[in-house]
Amino acid sequence: MQNIKAILFDLDGTLHHHLPSSGEVFVSYVRNLGFNISEEDRVRSEHWTHFYFAHSLEIQTDGKIYIDDKSFWVNFSKRRLAAMGIPASEAIELAPKVSAYMAESHKPKAFVPEDAFTLLESLKAAGYILGMASNREKPYLDKLKELNLDSYFKFAIAGGEFNSFKPHRVIFERALELAGTSAAETMYVGDNYFADVVGAQRAGITPVLYDPTHLFPDVECAVIRSFGELERILKQK
Fold this sequence. Notes:
Elements (H helix, E strand, L loop, with lengths): L5 E4 L7 E3 L2 H11 L6 H14 L4 H9 L3 H15 L4 H18 L3 E3 L2 H12 L3 E6 L6 H6 L8 E4 L10 H11 L6 E5 L2 H10 L3 E5 L11 E3 L3 H8 L2
Parallel strand pairs: 1-4, 1-6, 4-5, 6-7, 7-8
Antiparallel strand pairs: 2-3
Helix pairs in contact: 2-4, 4-5
């Protein structure tokens, strides 16, 4: 770890959070409709959601079929309901209602955890090169400014800028070029095991999973529950 010169971060779900989360609101509403969604069902649907948004074949296919936002999110709701264990016929029937509820009622507050700012200040002062790689479609500097994150990062890239999305290697390799470091000198911190950990490993980068809710208890990489824990990992010999 003493050879690490650059630390790259994911944005959404890692530094950028919503309160309440879409998952919390989704599950709460489905339960209020009378469905018995167990904790096991909830976790399984969260795992599926992370996998889906890790540029899965499913989301690539859905993006071509459901070209407007409304139909895309209705289909997503159907898939998420099925991942919870709701029978396919009921999921199809419920999906428009659940999707409409989410669009109308989920108005979350965006925030960055306070310990993330503390960590970024410390890492920048220590001389680490800080960069960001996100699976967003378009550049997002305005969002970083809105979140008061822009001053910490040497660069921030979106997968859509060059048609490479995590866990594909190209987005990570482009980040290495911008950082000016080798894969062995670089660490990537993200919350999505399927996109962030798998992708970083494919590129030879050291992954750290940010998992404050213990969503992925059995993974083969370093895990942090809070941002303060990252400095401890960096100090390990």
